Amino acid sequence: QEIRKVVQALEQTAREILTLLQGVHQGSGFQDIPKKCQKAREHFGTVRTQMESLKTKFSTDQYYRFHEHWRFVLQRLVFLAAFVVYLESETLVTREAVAEILGIEADRERGFHLDIEDYLSGVLTLASELARLAVNSVTAGDYSRPLRISTFINELDSGFRLLNLKNDSLRKRYDGLKYDVKKIEEVVYDVSIRGLNKEATVGGVGEK
User: Fold this and answer.
1) Which of 70, 108, 179, 195 has the most C-beta neighbours closer than 10 Å?
2) Is 65 within 8 Å of 110 (Cβ atoms)?
3) What is the Cα–Cα distance from 119 to 134, expressed in whole angstroms?
4) 184 CB contacts (<8 Å, ≥6 apart)?
5) Which residues fall in the annotated binding site for Mg(2+)?
């Protein structure tokens, strides 16, 4: 019961961060990206406090006994942390960096930790979000962003190909990555056909 209460609070904070970051998909949202990321990082302060509370509700050797309770919200928080880091630096966040943002451990031996499959699930959700961002970038007149997203997603896809995914739900999520790659390629192709990519190279990022 106590674990459920903390998890509900975490879900609420995750919803607030998601609502905040969804603003980047709006036309004017591109100008506000640094401000939105800063605000999201403040919310992650709340997440760390809530995680501290969660850790006190059971002994660490029972992590996998209760894992199902927070698995979904943890994956969502990984995605949100990965999205913030991508928006800030256009790089992939490491599992260690996510664990630090969330105020938990990266290593299983050290207590409440970020399970590798939860990390990978969150990263795959990021891919879908970036596919959507690629489409909305073109609408907002930012023609170079889809090209950069395409490079990033292709590298991500190559990384996942090296993994031997045994987990069924993770495998299904990975299958979705192929559609994200395809969707982004279509956006890039459309931009190229219309000659907008030349405009992107000449005009610089975000200029029309």
Assistant:
1) 70
2) no
3) 23
4) 130, 131, 134, 146, 149, 150, 153
5) 129
* DSSP annotation string for 166-198: --HHHHHHHHHHHHHHHHHHHHHHHHHHTTHHH
Structure tokens, 29: 């949202």
Which residues sit in the known binding site? 129
Structure tokens at 201: 């190279």
If phi over 0 gives left and psi between -120 and 50 gives alpha, with beta otherwise, what is residue 30?
alpha
> In whole angstroms, what is the distance from residue 68 CA to residue 52 CA?
18
Helical residues (DSSP H) of 23-164, grouped into ranges: 33-55, 63-89, 95-102, 116-139, 145-161
* Residue at token pair 């459920």: 4
pTM of the model: 0.91
Sequence-separated (6 or more) residues with CB below 8 Å from residue 151: none
| Cβ neighbours around 110 below 10 Å, total | 11
Fold of 1-194: Methane Monooxygenase Hydroxylase; Chain G, domain 1 (1.20.58)
Q: What letter would DSSP give residue 113?
A: B
Render pLDDT for 74-128 as a digit per residue (tens, 0 to 9).
999 999 999 999 999 999 999 999 999 999 999 888 889 999 999 999 999 999 9
Q: Beta-carbon neighbour count of residue 114 at 10 Å? A: 25
